[in-house]
């Protein structure tokens, strides 16, 4: 009797296969591909950690030509490679002053990394989480916050209208807005992005994507309308309100039970033409600037997408006089008693 011995062939990781198929299909990518040993050399064996998130960790590095970079090391086998593919596919198509530049990537076995230009002033979130000490420590006043708001809107307009394909970000929030040495903002983190035709007015996505507190109502429930570029506008509006409101979109009095949801508070103030009286407001010019940003933010967070302005209209409103802006309807979901969404750093 002859015995037949079969050797088991090692199965290829389906995630790596999927990524390699994508990279082969898009062989003409402008970004450099690094080996993992090169990534270790660039980051000096991951010595300088900049931050950490659900995706993995970010380290500071330096290229051979002397440029500083931020290297995002993605968690191994965390998903089917979709986040990595989304990031490389979407951001490699972009070139704009308000979009962070992807300089390279690594896909070496199970090791995945993304190499970005380094932004020395970190994220917008770190600045607005300084308990309103923005001016003292960072020379940031409302004029600078307005400058940042304009820059982010221009970056979004480019993603929605300036590319050959429309790119929806789906995770606009202060944490994903990076600031260079002159506090110019750049949109980053395209892991949840969706690439679609410029002619598409609605987008098909499976499940909700984004960060709690910034997700448009229609993204987690189609009863509110279709998912589209207006979903990014909603996230942008929540971010603007957080920028002018401080650390959280709530205002707390002496009594903890008197906590007020900030969009409600600022809407009531604007509607009744009361002074806003926010911290760090120095003069009437600041008052007008904040009032304008608040009105635009409230337009952006309208419950139904059809009522929200497109991002190009948002830019137009931000660059016009506050006296010319109409007060929007009160957003239905703005009350904490009825809203399932509140600002937080908890990622779905």
UniProtKB/TrEMBL annotation:
Recorded coiled-coil stretches: none
Protein residues bound to ATP: 72
An MF annotation (GO) of this entry: ATP binding
EC number(s) reported in the record: 2.7.11.1
Annotated InterPro entries: Kinase-like_dom_sf, LRK10/LRL21-25-like, Prot_kinase_dom, Protein_kinase_ATP_BS, Ser/Thr_kinase_AS
Name assigned to this protein: non-specific serine/threonine protein kinase
Gene3D superfamilies to which the protein is assigned, alphabetical: Phosphorylase Kinase, domain 1, Transferase(Phosphotransferase) domain 1
DNA damage listed as a keyword: no
Highest taxon listed in the record's lineage: Eukaryota
Membrane topology: Single-pass type I membrane protein
Protein location: Membrane
Keywords per UniProt: ATP-binding, Disulfide bond, EGF-like domain, Glycoprotein, Kinase, Membrane, Nucleotide-binding, Receptor, Serine/threonine-protein kinase, Signal, Transferase, Transmembrane, Transmembrane helix
């Amino acid at each position: 009797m002859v015995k037949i011995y079969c050797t088991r062939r090692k199965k290829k990781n389906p995630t790596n296969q999927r990524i390699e198929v994508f990279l082969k299909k898009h062989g003409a990518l402008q970004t450099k591909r690094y080996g993992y040993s090169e990534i270790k050399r660039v980051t000096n064996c991951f010595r300088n950690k900049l931050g950490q998130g659900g995706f993995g960790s970010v380290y500071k590095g330096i290229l051979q030509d002397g440029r500083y970079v931020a290297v995002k090391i993605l968690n191994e086998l965390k998903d089917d490679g979709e986040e990595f593919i989304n990031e490389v596919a979407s951001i490699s198509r972009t070139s704009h002053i308000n979009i962070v530049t992807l300089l390279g990537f690594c896909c070496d076995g199970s090791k995945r990394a993304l190499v970005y230009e380094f932004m020395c002033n970190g994220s917008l979130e770190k600045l607005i989480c300084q308990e309103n000490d923005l001016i003292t420590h960072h020379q940031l006043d409302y004029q600078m916050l307005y400058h940042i708001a304009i820059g982010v809107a221009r970056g979004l307009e480019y993603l929605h209208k300036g590319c050959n394909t429309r790119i929806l970000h789906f995770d606009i929030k202060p944490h994903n807005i990076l600031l260079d040495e002159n506090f110019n903002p750049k949109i980053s983190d395209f892991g949840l992005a969706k690439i679609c035709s410029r002619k598409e007015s609605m987008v098909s996505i499976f499940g909700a994507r984004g960060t709690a507190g910034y997700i448009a109502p229609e993204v987690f429930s189609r009863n509110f309308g279709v998912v589209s570029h207006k979903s990014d506008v909603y996230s942008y509006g929540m971010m603007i309100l957080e920028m002018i409101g401080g650390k959280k979109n709530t205002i707390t009095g002496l009594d903890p039970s008197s906590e007020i949801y900030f969009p409600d508070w600022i809407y009531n103030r604007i509607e009744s033409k009361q002074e806003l009286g926010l911290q760090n407001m120095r003069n009437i010019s600041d008052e007008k600037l904040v009032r304008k940003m608040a009105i635009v933010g409230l337009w952006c967070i309208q419950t139904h997408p059809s009522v929200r302005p497109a991002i190009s209209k948002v830019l137009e409103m931000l660059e016009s006089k506050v006296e010319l802006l109409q007060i929007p309807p009160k957003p239905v979901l703005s009350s904490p008693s009825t809203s399932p969404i509140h600002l937080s750093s908890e990622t779905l």
